[in-house]
Write a structure and sequence with these properties.
Blueprint: H1 5-45, H2 66-77, H3 82-93, H4 99-118, E1 122-126, E2 132-136
Antiparallel strand pairs: 1-2
Helix pairs in contact: 2-3, 3-4
């Protein structure tokens, strides 16, 4: 017993609850998409040819430091591209991978990566095929 058993137990329970909520929301989203596709199909059967309404642009905001934390988690595993970091951030927040959403998140992720580079926490280097790779800076301790 290390004095943190109750805290750890509570955090593990909360983590399981959140994971369960994410799974439920994913299932619900898939169901809604399937329902929408069936309605679109029924409309086309009756000769309705208008394009479905375009959803309004979504605002994607990350909490202060959230993108840097996601980037560092990813880079602890191995060097990665900005694209890898962007996709990991989108997955972490449950953001659908559309071109518009990718561009918005990539802009923010790139700023977070530059800030980490300026602090000397990560560096960029040329990867295979000239792709820019980001990697952790190893301390000389």
């Amino acid at each position: 017993m290390n004095g943190y058993d109750l805290t750890i137990s509570g955090l593990l329970r909360k983590r399981a609850d959140i994971a369960q909520d994410i799974e439920r929301q994913s299932v619900q989203l898939a169901t809604l998409k399937a329902d929408l596709a069936r309605i679109e199909a029924a409309l086309s059967v009756f000769g309705h040819t208008d394009a479905p309404p375009v959803p309004k642009a979504i605002r994607i905001r990350f909490r202060r430091g959230e993108l840097q934390r996601i980037a560092l988690e990813q880079l602890r595993e191995k060097p990665q591209t900005s694209r890898d970091i962007t996709l990991a951030a989108m997955k972490a927040r449950g953001i659908e991978e559309t071109r518009d959403a990718y561009d918005r998140v990539n802009k923010s992720a790139s700023a977070a990566l530059r800030a980490l580079r300026e602090r000397g926490v990560i560096r960029d280097s040329a990867g295979a095929g000239g792709a820019l790779l980001w990697e952790m800076v190893r301390s000389a301790h």
